[in-house]
Design goal:
The complex is a heterodimer of chains A (261) and B (247). Chain A is α/β, with parallel strands linked by helices and 261 residues long. Chain A has two domains: 38-118 and 223-255, D-Maltodextrin-Binding Protein, domain 2 (3-Layer(aba) Sandwich); 121-218, D-Maltodextrin-Binding Protein, domain 2 (3-Layer(aba) Sandwich). Chain A has nine helices and ten strands. In chain A, the strands form two sheets. Chain A has a five-stranded mixed β-sheet. In chain A, strand 1 (40-47), helix 2 and strand 2 form a beta-alpha-beta unit. Chain B has a single domain, classed as MetI-like fold. Classes of the chains: A alpha/beta (261), B mainly alpha (247). The A-B interface holds A 76, 78-79, 81-82, 145, 147, 150, 152, 172-177, 188-191 and B 92, 96-98, 112, 114-115, 193, 197-200, 202-203, 211-212, 214-216, 218.
């Protein structure tokens, strides 16, 4: 390339870059205005087990409140609680147990929580039940591959309670960080059974079959929800919490298999 | 200078913020010692396997007239750039209980890799092998071929040439690669937790134990991190002095 052409193309690239930068800055300034613009976003941290139901609720919420966008951060309640306690910029937290919510309220990071649903455990097996699991007793069978949640996450804490109630010592092969990871092991036919929530068995669809057991009633997980203090959008956050507690939100949750709190 | 600070300051933060009062209790706990033992054993076995598999591969790659050498090198580099979790998922699809090779293996022997320490070693070999291969290939390339040629003209068989000339010449390169592979294996997390699972004593290596501790006991997480850091640094310093003449 000749010197003239090189200089010209450099100029073109530089102009393009600068205009892109200015446009981006302009947009960012507009968004961070928050209350002054019509577009506001809230980020909801929710337990993994709420993935399908909350995604649906999020869409319905956005439809009723045009200009509001809901982003979700699904994961292990314990991980999310630790992040919020450390100051992660989230607006709403829906946990799968009062214990994980307590991590957040103990440091004063959330408004008073309200219980919105409850969930019980169920045994999930791969379609066709290759491991021939029949009851909770089979979870203690060392020859079977079993996945349960780690004890410090809500589904794991519930699992500890049901095993104590049934007087069984489980023989798991892996302790998963959240319930969806345990479910995934079942749906990919890597384990013979996993202890997950009723709602996860439903969410697992055709790949997963569920086996109920009576001791599940001994460990009902109540899910609390709370708006996070210091949110950039406290009004929208509270509106989301109210929507979840409303009859519309509750209908979606009931359809997913959740029970009343 | 900024680069150095960027690397060193977080580690300094780790050491400063760790609750040293609880050190004795945390570092000698069952969870910590079993995780450390598992990590050290699996990483060492993984490093040995990478040497066994990697040195011949590196030798192949270093040959001047290999057809498709750049393609081969690109394939070997893939685990290096692949996110470790993706590596774990890939290992799953191959060697999981319903994997391409795993299903016949399970049907034939009743054995499946996931949730066993063998899976931990496999995951570590997968991520560490490129380190060794590329390191040894580099050493082989810079080694003077004239020594090998001289040995051949003096009547040595190819095996003797390899054993008595090539290997001693690239010994330090292999050692350096093995140490690098060992360190990478020790720190492996994503592929381990996805492919091998997470169970104390069997598959919960130090990085997994630290990950768990971050949620339950952040102070313990800091102490365990410093322990792992100290172990790695100690081995690197020891080996560097004794075995690796040329780094």
């Amino acid at each position: 390339m000749s010197r003239v052409t090189t200089r010209r193309s450099t100029l073109i690239v530089a102009t393009a870059a600068v205009s892109l930068l200015l446009a981006a800055c302009g947009n960012a300034a507009g968004d961070s205005g928050g209350a002054s613009t019509s577009e506001s976003t809230i980020t909801v941290a929710a337990a993994a087990s709420l993935t399908e139901a909350f995604t649906q609720i999020g869409k319905e919420f956005e439809a009723t409140k045009p200009g509001t966008k809901v982003m979700f951060n699904f994961g292990s309640s314990a991980t999310l609680a630790a992040q919020i306690a450390e100051g992660a910029p989230l607006d709403v937290f829906a946990a799968a147990s009062p214990a994980t919510m307590k991590t957040v309220t103990d440091v004063g990071a959330a408004e008073p929580p309200r219980d919105f649903v409850s969930n019980t455990l169920e045994i999930a097996v791969p379609k066709g039940n290759p491991g021939k699991i029949a009851s909770l007793r089979d979870i203690a069978d060392k020859s079977k591959k079993i996945a349960i949640c780690a004890p410090q996450v809500p589904c794991g804490a519930a699992a500890v309670k049901v095993f104590a109630a049934a007087k069984i010592t489980p023989a798991p092969d892996t302790l998963e960080q959240d319930v969806k990871a345990a479910l995934q092991k079942v749906s990919s036919d890597e384990v013979d059974a996993a202890l997950v929530y009723k709602t996860d068995v439903i969410a697992g669809g055709e790949k997963v079959a569920g086996i109920e057991f009576p001791e599940a009633k001994q460990a009902v997980n109540v899910y609390p929800i709370a708006a996070i203090k210091g949110s950039a959008n406290p009004a929208a956050a509270q509106q989301f919490v109210d929507h979840v507690l409303s009859s519309d939100g509750q209908a979606v949750l009931a359809k997913a298999g959740f029970a009343k709190p | 200078m900024v680069g150095l600070l960027f690397l060193v300051l977080p580690l300094a933060g780790l050491i400063i913020r760790a609750p040293w009062r609880d050190a004795a209790q945390v570092l000698t706990s069952e969870a910590a010692t079993s995780a450390l033992r598992l990590s050290l054993i699996t990483a060492t076995i993984a490093a040995l396997i990478t040497v066994l598999l990697g040195v011949p591969l590196a030798w192949l790659l270093a040959r001047p007239t290999l057809p498709g050498a750049s393609l081969l090198r690109a394939l070997i580099t893939v685990p290096l750039v692949l996110p470790p979790v993706v590596g774990g998922v890939a290992l799953f699809t191959l060697l999981g209980r319903s994997g391409l090779l795993g299903r016949p293996l399970y049907a034939w022997t009743g054995f499946a890799f996931p949730f066993t320490p063998y899976a931990v070693v496999l995951a570590q070999v997968f991520v560490a092998l490129p380190f060794l291969v590329l390191s040894v290939e580099g050493a082989l390339r810079t080694a003077d071929r004239r020594y090998e040629e001289a040995a051949a003209t003096l009547g040595a068989t190819p095996l003797t040439v390899f054993r008595r000339v090539t290997l001693p010449l690239v010994g330090p390169g292999i050692a350096a690669g093995a140490v690098l592979a060992w360190a990478r294996a020790l720190g492996e997390f994503g592929a381990t937790i996805t492919f091998a699972g997470n169970f104390p004593g069997t598959t919960r290596t130090m990085p997994l134990e630290i990950y768990l501790a971050v949620e339950t006991d952040p102070g313990a997480a800091l102490l365990l991190s410093v322990l792992l850091l100290a172990t790695s640094v100690a081995v690197l310093v020891l080996l560097r002095g004794r075995w690796v003449r040329r780094w």
